[in-house]
Amino acid sequence: MKIPQVLILDDDRIQHILLQKRFSQFEPQPQVTFFERAVFALDFLKENSADMILLDLNLPEMDGWEFVNELKKLETKGKVFVLSGSIDPKEKNLINEDPFIKGQFEKPLSQLDLEMMMEH
Hints:
This protein is of the alpha/beta class. About 40% of the residues lie in helices and about 20% in strands.
């Protein structure tokens, strides 16, 4: 069975710890790679693949929307999910209208949220 590759782009290190703990409950346990800066995540994805990308929209330097636009140019096959502490209605509509983004979830993510993402 293939080990899922997960990339998490979030500038909140506490989220990294929480998500690592949640992902450790899966069998097989996914290979999780964390980034705090979008440019580093993009550099990684130029050389590596990810089956799933969890993305915070509010990032320093390059925000989540800019990241998504750059990600589309790479023609990645990974499922993209938006994570946010709060999503305003305008952003919610943009997320729902973008077929590249498979879903949105509010932080903190539950184990059930992650199971839904993994099965999507």
